[in-house]
Amino acid sequence: MEVDPAVADQAAKNLAVCGRSPLLVVGDGALGHAAGAPYDRVHATCGVQRVPWAWVEQTRPGGVIVTPWSPGWAYGHLLRLTVGRDRAVGRLVGSAGYMMMRAQRHPVPGRLGTRPEHRTTPIDPRDVAWDDYGADVAIAALVPGVVSATTSEGDDTMEVRVWDGDGSWATTGYRQGRRGFAVASHGTRRLWDEVTDAYLTWVEWGRPARDRYGVTVTAEGQQIWLDTPDRVIGPLSPT
């Protein structure tokens, strides 16, 4: 299934060269393809923040959904869900950084020159941004709506930018030879404080690895959990 007719047309030509002729559907993948349901497997090749409920509805009980899951903070993860009676439940099983589904692309950061507040932070941004995939999941769950981008120049310089869809943003980083870690921020949320609080919460949990996290998807939305589905750490977000 492909939303762009030109891409779908090229895919059909490439498949024909390989001697393959699967059913190709041009349409919005978030809606699935009800005419062919129920499916044994749903395999997405674009990133999603929220697993569309249509995928769950169109998969038979016991069927499997595999998708790149990219909540916004740091790199994306590979999510494997199994469909039950009224929900899909599964764990994060690896890394997956894919182009986002068009309807779920992350917000573009606002202008960073809008009268920022300047302060310092005692926490090394390299620890927060690069520690562990488990920390990334915890931050994504505990700081709803946060998006990040990290750039670096070897071991000498790095910068972390964080923002949300409502105009709040913050930047911080590391530069060799400079004392302390400066933070510039703007908006109604102190995003870097929220991110570092989430990171320290993860540390206090005992630094759980990524494979201890999972996601539950229902008709009402999705939740992020740690170890078992009844230990929810992320708020319900609409599917």
Give an overview in words:
The protein is α+β, with helices and mostly antiparallel strands and 239 residues long. The chain has five helices and eleven strands. It has helices at 5-17, 53-57, 125-130, 133-142, 191-204; strands at 39-43, 59-69, 77-83, 88-95, 117-121, 147-153, 157-163, 169-175, 181-186, 213-218, 221-226. The strands form two sheets. A six-stranded mixed sheet has the order 1-2-3-4-10-11. Helix 4 (133-142) crosses helix 5 (191-204). The chain starts with a helix and ends in a 13-residue tail after the last strand. The mean pLDDT is 93.
pLDDT averaged residue by residue: 93
Given helix and strand content, the structural type is: alpha+beta
Which stretches are poorly predicted, pLDDT < 50 over at least 5 residues?
Answer: none
**Fraction of helical residues:** 10-25%
Major sheet description: 6 strands, mixed
Q: How far apart lie the N and C ends?
A: 19 Å
Overall geometry: globular
- Assembly context of the chains: single chain
In short:
The protein is α+β, with helices and mostly antiparallel strands and 239 residues long.
